[in-house]
Amino acid sequence: MASYLVRRFLLMLLTLFGMSVLIFVMLRLVPGNITDIIFDSAGFVNPAQKARIERELGLDQPIVTQYVNWIVGLARGDLGYAYVSEKPAIEEILPRIPVTAKLAVLALVFSVLFGVPLGVISAVRQNTPLDYALRVVSLSGLSLPSFWLGLLILMAFVQWFGWIPIYRGSDNLWQELAFLSIPAAAVGFRASALIMRLTRSSMLEVLRQDYIRTARAKGASDSAVNYRHALNNAVLPVVTIIGIEAAFLIGGLIITETVFNIPGVARFLVEAIRWRDYPIVQNLVMFIAIVVVVVNFIVDMAYVVLDPRIKYEE
Amino acid sequence: MAVIDHDAQLSRAGANVRGPLGSLVFFVRRYPLGAAGALIMLAFVGVAVFADFIATHDPLTTNARASLARPGGENVLGADFMGRDVLARIIYGARISLIVGIGATALGCVIGMAIGLLSGFFGGWFDLLVQRLMDIMQSLPLLVMALVMAASLGPSLTNTIVAIAIPLVPTVARTIRSNTLALREMPFVEAARAVGMSETRIAVQHVLPNTLAPLIVLATAQLGSAILVESALAFLGLGVPEPHPSWGRMLSESAAEYVRTAPWLVIFPGVAISAVVFGTNLLGDAIRDLLDPRQRF
Question: Is the ipTM here above 0.85?
Answer without folding.
Answer: no
